[in-house]
Amino acid sequence: MTTMPAAFVGHGSPMNALESNRYTESWRALGAALPRPRAVLVVSAHWYIGATAVTAMPRPRTIHDFFGFAGDLFAFDYPAPGAPEVAAEVEEIAKPTWVGQDVDSWGIDHGTWSVLAHMFPEADVPVVQLSIDAGKSFDQHLELGARLAPLRESGVLVVGSGNVVHNLGGMDPRRRDEGFDWAQRFDDAARATMTGSPDALPGITGSRDFDLAVPTPDHFIPLLYLAGLGAASGSGTDVLVDGYAYGSLSMTAYTLGLDAPVATSDAPGAGSVPPGRPPEAMNI
User: Fold this and answer.
1) pLDDT value at position 115?
2) Where residue 281 falls among pLDDT bands split at 50, 70, 90?
3) What is the DSSP letter of 108?
4) With bands split at pLDDT 50, 70 and 90, how would you rate the model's confidence at 276?
5) Where are the beta strands (DSSP E) in 168-279?
6) 266: how many CB neighbours lie within 10 A of its CB?
7) Model-level pTM?
8) Contact 111, 61 (CB under 8 A)
C-alpha cells in the first residue's frame, strides 16, 4: 500500500466551511490530489482536554463548538461515518501512552469539519479525532505524532488542524488579509523549522514572538503532530498555502509526502467573522 501523505491545516474562522477563498480552494485541491484514505485521523485544536482520547463511535455527531455566528453555520452537518477499528489501532500504536476510547461524548468539531467539508465534500471518508492532552509537553506531543507513523502505511490520513499563530485578543477586523510583524516573524520561524528539521519544532518556544503568537497552546499543538510524522520519516514538509487573517492569525498549511497542489483564487483570503463582536465571544 502507498504511504499516505499527512497534513496540517490552518483552519481559521468556522465560516470557512461555507465560504470560498484561496485557503478553502487549497484544501479542495489537497483532497483531490490525495490517494483515497481508508480513514482520516484529525488532531483538532478544539478537542483540548485533560487526557488523550480517540473517538470510537460508528456515527460521530457534528459539533457546533462556537457561538455568535449565523444560523446557517449551526445548521451545517458533516455526516461522515466513524471508524472504531481505526480508533483501536490508534490506542494500540500509542502505547505506552494511554488512549481512551470515546464512544459517546465528543464527535466531529469545527476544527475538523470546516476543513474536511472541502477536502472530502461528500463526507464519505470515515473520520476519527484524537484529543490534545493539555497536560503533555510539546516534546511529548511531538513523540506521540511520530508514533502515529504506522497509520500512514495502512491508508490513514493524519491531519492536524489549528493555527500556527492564534491570538484572538489581538485580532483587528481592518486587517482581514494581513499579519502583524510579530505574527509574520513567528510564522516564518515555524516555516523554516517545518521545511527543514521538523523534530526541532518544540524549540520554537524560545522565539521572542512565542508568547504573542501562542498565548494558549491548543491551536499550535496540532502542528507538532505533523512535525512528529516528519521526524519519523526523516523529511521536512512542504507549504500548501500561507497567509494571515485579522493581523493575529496565520493560515499557513503544510503537507508531508505530497507535492503541494496549487490552487489559485481571487476571492478574499480569510473566512469572515461576525462584525462588532469580540473574538473571545466566538471561540474560533
Assistant:
1) 98
2) low
3) B
4) low
5) 238-241, 244-245, 249-250, 253-256
6) 7
7) 0.94
8) no
